[in-house]
Request: fold
Amino acid sequence: MPPAESAAAPAVEFAIQKRRVRFLGLTLDECIKLFFGGNAVVSIVVLTLITYFLFREGAGFFGQNRVNLQVYRQAGLEYVDYLRRQADDHTALTRYLADVRLRTVQHHTRTSGKSLEEANAALTEFDVYVERYSAAIDPLRTMVGELSEVASAIKTKFIVNEDKKEERRQLLAEGKMAEAARVAIDRVDFEAELRPIRAGFPAYRTLNRELSSTLTQLAGNIPALPVPELQQRMERFAVLSREYVGTFPEIERSLESWDHNAPISASQAFSSFLFGRQWLTASFWQDWYGIIPLLIGSLLVSLVALALAVPLGVGAAIYVNQIATPLEQKLIKPCIEFISAIPSVVLGFFGIAVLGQLLRNLSQSPALAWVPGFPYSERLNILTAGCLLALIAVPTIFTLAEDALNNVPRAFKEASFALGASRLQTTMRIIVPASLSGIISAVLLGLGRVIGETMVVLLCAGNRIAIPDFTQGFAFIVEPVHTMTGIIAQEMGEVVRGSIHYRALFVVGLVLFLLSLLINFGAQKIVRRYRISVG
Reply:
């Protein structure tokens, strides 16, 4: 046997013996393949368990929400809210007048050189007008207060009755028949309980006529202001006031046709959550579970973060991959990747103690007065949280974008240089377009990273559950918001297990989970298409 063959024989024999080793009926190679190739199965099992857990805990929410909305109607709270919204709309118009007054005072003090006392004295007629307009709603507010007490008492009586039913069920389950029989349960007759509320409709109609007459008269006699711009705002106020009065007949028709026995459909319980604009819990009046303000808050903070992170992350990837020297690469890459090692709670503390105050002080600079929303007073807002989330997203975008640039065939670059293109032309017209799919997937994965972040937004977004005022344009980025992750972290420890609030938080978690899954799925689809095109 030749020496080469004799030397290779032991290795071949070892390989044969290794393949004969079996564990649970599998060869060693098959065991290794099964161990390292089971990632997909593990991922599917984990996703299935998470989805099942979220569905199991949140499944009862829509049924409970339907009952919640039904009680809201049967107890008369819905009826009273028609009047309450009418009073709130009047309050919004009164705030409009207060804003006009503030602008007028600023004009007198800054432009005309008057003192504050002189400016207030010049607005005596305007103040009398505001006082008359504001006082016109007082009779309606009194009626709302009286009817609110009646409706709250009806709802409280129903809740107490339901608690007694639950107590009786528990006693019966424990076999305590005598104690269960002593639990008195009174049937709530909503028809009888609502009579005092319905009896007030004739008085409301009379009151409405007087309010309509007063506001129409005031809208036709607005006071004159010294500046054309302010006078235009008052004319706009007169139009808004007439439109407000025009809604009165519709409110009366709604009250006349209101039926406390009208059923709440399953679609209403679902749409009130999916399209609801209020998230209000532990309210003495009515709890609302609408995801829209939380969803908008999450998206706005994430978009601000991407607006900052994409140029920085992609730009750094292009520079390091195509332009930087080996020494610069060794310095820049570890520094960027080290950011991902910083705990998010530390970044949140940094935002509260340093960045929020720094940005607010920066907004006070006269040189930045042209920026929408500057100056502002809320140091914890969309901008502060977005800046910190951008810092979190940069390492993800940078790493994945650089991998995409590395995967561009070297022949593309060499062919470009052979045709006489410069390095910049080759990078921007050949390398970047060829890796665009990978860069887009990097951005999407960065979005998935920031939209699921909790501690930073909980500490730095301001935690105001409200939809930002988009009528102010780009200035909305300095308004506080709350997010889906933040509301779960903030309220989960305070809710009673099995309650409607508890299940609502799990449904929010389910929406967040599905949104993140959709983003990551889209990114993976783009990566797969990118790999196929490169191959």
The mean pLDDT is 89. Residues 138-173 form the longest helix (36 residues). DSSP finds 25 helices and four strands in the chain. The CA atoms of residues 310 and 484 lie 23 Å apart.
